[in-house]
Write a structure and sequence with these properties.
InterPro entries: Class_I_gatase-like, GATASE, GMP_synth_C, GMP_synth_GATase, GMP_synthase, GMPS_ATP_PPase_dom, NAD/GMP_synthase, Rossmann-like_a/b/a_fold. The chain is an alpha/beta fold. It has 3 domains: about 190 residues, Class I glutamine amidotransferase (GATase) domain (Rossmann fold), CATH 3.40.50.880; about 190 residues, 3-Layer(aba) Sandwich (Rossmann fold); about 100 residues, GMP Synthetase, Chain A, domain 3 (2-Layer Sandwich), CATH 3.30.300.10. The protein is built from 15 helices and 20 strands. The strands form 4 sheets. Strands 2-1-3-4-11-10-9-6-7 form a 9-stranded mixed β-sheet, sandwiched between helices. Strands 14-13-12-15-16 form a 5-stranded parallel β-sheet, with helices on both faces. Strands 17, 18, 19 and 20 form a 4-stranded mixed β-sheet that branches. A hairpin with a 2-residue loop joins strand 9 and strand 10. Helix 5 crosses helix 12 and helix 14 packs across helix 15. The two termini are about 35 Å apart. The structure holds xanthosine-5'-monophosphate. Xanthosine-5'-monophosphate binds next to helix 11.
Length: about 525
């Protein structure tokens, strides 16, 4: 358990709850997200938060049985900040009232100060331009304030857009200060944490020392194996653990036959040669591709791969001579999503095998030194550990690899075509100096053949889709606006250089409503 000052975010299932945590981490504040139903008064007191934020959520507080915060939140004497549904929960639990429906406000709105209020407390520094631009997303609204509260700001459809009970340090807003579309949202969150006494004690150098100490404490003289994928997360986890326990760590690199071109060679060279970390290169492609034969359902693909990964790890753990621990580069977003789909309030979109699919039978204990970190924090930790920039800057690559970029049935032929097309696309992106601007880029091979004409002949080959997105954390994403010249040149190169593809499309879907991967 961390020694830092802790802020608790109670999650009511908003799609943007994680952004609250990210904004706070940027302010060097340590925070944890817990789903509302995992907390009772006792659990809350055990967490001993120094402040609490209540997130937004999809429900209506007017519905009988809708989510509530443990009442102790309001009795612990700590500052509380309610956001959207969180505001409505505060009003419902503290004696105000909320009305359902007919007040929907989605997207941009402007909040003006209530008469006599120009903003102070967590609203200090706002309204410099006379009004604040905010991002709204609500159906219900507050219609009567709880005793002790006053109105600080109003919008056309939310008369109680900003409210405060300064005596108890309770604050609430109807909009979402955590999203980029509320330009001064960060100011409100910063005012809130400073007022709550947070000193900003969460830094990467401090985290590195603490993580090393914790790994030594957990593992003692035991042996650890670490699944290496070549991605940033498992690489940083491996180097960190190696720094903590040296040769007690053996890395296992599982080649499941679903890797990109040249990937296996690169990873092995980096870890064996550059870091001198003991490494087992397990070529298990026959096993994985055999098990995936005939499988086209995305979730079955993930579960199959997740299950086999564990089997392979167990086998190699035994070979390493009695390893007791398995290290994984699990990140905080994986943890939160997994909590959510095993009982949390937000809807499951995809299962991420590195947490949710772990079978109970697995005889290894987990070491997960990145469990508290977001992706950009992992990169910062990687730099702190001296990993080469080209490794830190690598685009994320999913555990199930090319399996989820091959919608429909996976065949060796399709995988080989996909590998070649992907290599051309990434080469194009690098040649044009765009790699670092793009968060993730890849090709998906589509389960459809199309007719083309090349030379004087008819072709009947696969179509593929290029995917490239910008994102901060993979939770939301936008397609990358390549020039038509770039797209045309890339399509020509792929069709000329890759036998088996005769049509190239560009995926211009953002997330949401799409996801980044095709499956
Ligand atoms: P989606 O497709 O959910 O992807 O928008 C968000 C990020 O997660 C990666 N991803 C996965 N990573 N196992 C993983 O380890 C998975 O099953 C998985 N599915 C998606 C995806 O590549 C993107 O970076």
């Amino acid at each position: 358990m961390t020694q830092h000052q802790r802020l608790l975010i109670i999650d009511f299932g908003s799609q943007v709850t994680q952004l609250i945590a990210r904004r706070l981490r940027e302010l060097n504040v340590y925070c944890e997200i817990h789903p509302y139903q995992s907390l009772d008064d006792a659990a809350l007191r055990a967490l001993a938060p120094q402040a609490v934020i209540l997130s937004g959520g999809p429900d209506s507080v007017t519905r009988p049985g809708s989510p509530r915060a443990p009442q102790a939140v309001f009795e612990m004497g700590v500052p509380v900040f309610g956001i959207c549904y969180g505001q409505q929960v505060m009003m419902a639990q503290l004696g105000g009232s909320v009305e359902a429906g007919h007040h929907a406000e989605y997207g941009r709105a402007f909040v003006t100060p209530a008469p006599g209020h120009s903003g102070d407390g967590i609203f200090a520094g706002l309204f410099a331009a006379g009004r604040e631009e905010v991002w709204m997303s609500h159906g219900d609204r507050v219609t009567a304030l709880a005793p002790g509260f006053e109105v600080i700001g109003t919008s056309p459809n939310a008369p109680f857009a900003m409210i405060a009970d300064p005596a108890r340090s309770f604050y609430a807003v109807q909009f979402h200060p955590e999203v980029h579309h509320t330009p001064n949202g960060r100011v409100m969150l910063e005012n809130f944490v400073r007022m709550a006494g947070f000193t900003g004690d969460w830094t990467m150098a401090g985290y590195r020392d603490e993580a090393i100490r914790r790994i030594r404490e957990q593992v003692g003289g035991g042996k650890v194996i670490c699944g290496l994928s070549g991605g940033v997360d498992s690489s940083v986890a491996a180097v960190l653990i190696h720094e903590a326990i040296g040769d007690q760590l053996t890395c296992v690199f599982v080649d499941h036959g679903l890797l990109r071109q040249g990937e296996a060679e690169e990873v092995v060279a980096m870890f064996r040669d550059a870091y001198n970390i003991p490494l087992v290169h397990a070529d298990e492609s026959e096993l994985f591709l055999g098990a995936l034969e005939g499988v086209s359902d995305p979730e079955v693909k993930r579960k199959t791969i997740g299950r086999l990964f564990i089997d392979v790890f167990q086998k190699h753990a035994a070979e390493v001579g009695g390893a007791e621990y398995l290290a994984q580069g699990t990140l905080y977003p994986d943890v939160i999503e997994s909590v959510s789909f095993t009982g949390g309030p937000s809807v499951t979109i995809k299962s991420h095998h590195n947490v949710g699919g772990l079978p109970e039978k697995m005889g290894l204990k987990l070491v997960e030194p990145l469990r508290e970190l977001f992706k950009d924090e992992v990169r910062a930790l990687g730099r702190e550990l001296g990993l080469p920039e080209k490794f830190i800057g690598r685009h994320p690559f999913p555990g199930p690899g090319l399996a989820i970029r091959c919608p429909g049935e996976i065949t060796r032929e399709k995988l080989e075509i996909l590998r070649q097309a992907d290599a051309v696309f990434i080469d194009q992106i690098r040649r044009h100096g765009l790699y670092d601007e793009i968060w993730q880029a890849f090709v998906a091979i589509l389960p459809v053949r199309t007719v083309g004409v090349m030379g004087d002949g008819r072709t009947y080959d696969f179509a593929c889709a290029l995917r490239a997105v910008t994102s901060v954390d993979g939770m939301t994403a936008d397609y990358y606006p390549f020039s038509h010249a770039f797209l045309g040149e890339t399509a020509t190169r792929i069709i000329n250089e890759v036998k088996g593809i005769n049509r190239v499309t560009y995926d211009i879907t953002s997330k949401p409503p799409g996801t980044i991967e095709w499956e």
